[in-house]
Write a structure and sequence with these properties.
It is built from 23 helices and 14 strands. It is α+β, with helices and mostly antiparallel strands and 624 residues long. The strands form three sheets. Strands 3, 4, 6, 9, 11 and 14 form a six-stranded antiparallel β-sheet that branches.
Length: 624
């Protein structure tokens, strides 16, 4: 018995080792990432795929130097190429097999599931390369193997990695490969290789230039030499522009896209003097000056090389409206800085998790069309459900958040997001007392499970919009008529609006939607509206719901029912209590829809119906 107890204790200690991520945690994370990879895909990257196929065709037809002109009128998507040509060259190399398959089979490489997964495989490959480089960076700056592995787990379990790369599936991860490789080279003082990596990264997306300049200035104090290195980093960009310079379409396709990005990056946060002050641009200039003045010794250098990109990208996402797929650029530097800090590890990881949650919510509320049901129509969900036939309850993550009232807190969520970034930047600033300390504080497994749970919730919420069906409509006048307000308020004692309706078979009713005209929307609840459902056969009151007038606005009000209504006739009665002299009345249809049951206002029939929609609990089989 004692021997068995010793074995159990030994197994438990190994399982609960705070210096390692256990096998179960890795397996669950792998399952989550595979689910994300197999279920969600945003349309935008298909434009890049299509344009890369057109690049191969332009080469075949000898139109390489007029590639942008060649694509006009030939694209199968909504976007002609608007990146520098290097991005399409990378995708074209990857898509040579796809182009050959298309040539002989005419596969739909825009919507075909195998073609989409082939595209996502490129992004997954880039992600794994970034993970490996982060692991190598952690080892190089002095972390233990176990701590470096924890860093890779934290990177892969970040919401801000999973969504942009494996779900939205945008090409920023391609850019990140060269940025991270350049950082790794710079840590080793291989300056030429560092410049080459960033020379490739800059034409992919110009964000790399923001961190390149201060990184050069942290080492190079001679202005002429610093400028020569900066010019060298622009060499590939200059080559890309030279290749396409004769193409007229190049100038307006890439130029218009650049103009939009330039305007967004300069967005003024404060009005000063004769113009607006951009906190991001001001921050970059300040960091460059600080980097030039800062003298770092050999022990400090490594931490500052990682912290400077973290600081720049942190300011970028804190100070202007970003697209949701850009934020992947921030994560590797956040994780490495967290792991370099011998203190606050638990708090740091929880803050990075909160950063992911708030970024997801903010972007889902701002860019609702990205987080929509259309992201599910090419991959696994569309293959296991009646995707096109199913009537969905929600068409986007935004609709779910709106249903639960979370959209009201959009500014609060954005504020928490910015505070999380600023707190992380402050906590993880390289300090003298932290030199050569990497492995002091251990990480509790409960924190890892918080991260895993947050990933599961995000996927469930997103995939759920493709699986949660709308209830069958029992009564619906909203789709058949315009709405008008009733002429009398329901608040005076004795006033009521009654709508009768039939239930043709026993049904579980989930909710009823109504709409009101309301003058009594003061925050002081001195009056209320009462909604009753009465069985006309038994005269039994099935449901009674009370709503304070202050919470009723001009949007649709949803009354939760969740009651079984047996076959028969019922009436929905709306009345009020505690008249405050202001008018509140339900909306009615402009014309009579249900001839059998005109609405009754204070007992008098009107040639109208209540403006209403009621739904049953959907039970139809929708899985294939």
């Amino acid at each position: 018995m004692r021997k068995n107890e010793g074995a159990i204790r030994k197994y438990y200690n190994k399982w609960n080792d705070k210096n390692k991520v256990n096998v179960i945690e890795w397996l669950i994370l792998l399952l989550i990432l595979v689910t994300a990879f197999m279920c969600v895909y945003y349309y935008d990257v298909s434009c890049t795929v299509d344009n890369s196929i057109l690049l191969l065709k332009s080469i075949y037809k000898g139109e390489f130097f007029h590639y942008y002109d060649f694509t006009i009128g030939k694209t199968r998507t909504v976007w002609a190429p608007n990146y520098e040509i290097l991005m399409y060259i990378i995708f074209a190399i990857w898509n040579i097999p796809l182009a050959l398959v298309y040539k002989f089979t005419h596969i739909d490489y825009i919507h075909s599931m195998p073609a989409v997964l082939w595209t996502k495989l490129l992004l997954l490959t880039c992600l794994l390369i970034v993970v490996y480089i982060v692991y190598k960076i952690c080892l190089f700056i002095g972390m233990s193997i176990e701590r470096s592995r924890i860093a890779t787990f934290l990177l892969l379990s970040s919401i801000n990695v999973m969504i942009p790369t494996l779900m939205i599936s945008q090409c920023d991860i391609v850019n990140l490969v060269f940025i991270m490789l350049g950082i790794y080279m710079y840590l080793q003082k291989k300056t030429v290789k560092f410049i080459i990596c960033f020379a490739v990264a800059i034409p992919l997306k110009m964000f790399a230039l923001f961190i390149f300049v201060p990184l050069i200035l942290i080492d190079e104090k001679k202005i002429i030499k610093a400028l020569s290195k900066i010019v060298a980093s622009l060499s590939v960009l200059i080559i890309c522009k030279a290749i396409s310079w004769q193409s007229e379409a190049y100038h307006y396709l890439v130029g218009s896209f650049s103009n939009v990005m330039t305007k967004q990056l300069q967005e003024a946060n404060i009005q000063l003097g004769s113009g607006g002050f951009s906190m991001f641009i001001g921050g970059i200039v300040a960091v460059c000056i600080w980097a030039y003045l800062k003298e770092v010794d050999k022990e400090e250098r490594n931490k500052y090389i990682v912290y400077i990109p973290f600081l720049i990208f942190g300011m970028m996402f804190a100070f202007f409206a970003f697209f949701p797929y850009w934020i992947v650029l921030l994560v590797p530097f956040t994780i490495v800085c967290i792991m370099c800090n011998p203190r606050y590890l638990k708090l740091n990881v929880l803050l990075e998790t909160l950063l992911g949650i708030t970024a997801f919510l903010s972007c889902a509320l701002r860019y609702y069309w990205i987080y929509s049901e259309t992201t599910l129509d090419s991959l696994l969900i569309s293959k296991v459900t009646d995707f096109n036939e199913m009537n969905r309850k929600y068409n986007s993550v935004y609709a779910v958040l709106q249903h639960f009232g979370i959209d009201k807190y959009q500014n609060a969520i954005a504020t928490v997001f910015v505070v999380s970034i600023i707190t992380l930047l402050i906590l993880n600033y390289p300090r003298e007392r932290d030199k050569q300390c990497f492995n002091q504080e251990s990480l509790e497994h409960s924190v890892l499970w918080v991260r895993i749970s947050s990933l599961i919730i995000v996927i469930a919420l997103w995939v759920g919009i493709g699986l949660i069906p709308e209830g069958n409509t029992l009564v619906n006048t909203m789709d058949s008529s315009e709405s008008v307000k009733a002429e009398e308020s329901v608040l005076p004692e004795g006033n009521s609006v009654v709508q009768k309706f039939d239930v043709k078979k026993d049904t579980k009713v989930s909710e009823i939607e109504l709409q009101f005209y309301n003058e009594a929307n003061s925050h002081i609840n001195v009056s209320e509206v009462v909604v009753d459902i009465i069985d006309l056969d038994t005269k039994e009151k099935i449901l009674s719901k009370r709503m304070g007038t202050s919470v009723i606005d001009e949007k649709i009000c949803t009354v939760k029912v969740n009651k079984k209504l047996n076959k028969g006739s019922y009436e929905l009665k709306i009345s009020g209590r505690n008249d405050n002299g202001e008018m509140i009345s339900p909306l009615l249809t402009k014309k009579l829809i249900y001839q059998k049951y005109p609405v009754l206002i204070n007992g008098k029939e009107e040639e109208q119906n209540l403006y209403i929609q009621s739904k049953d609990r959907f039970r139809r089989r929708y899985l294939r």
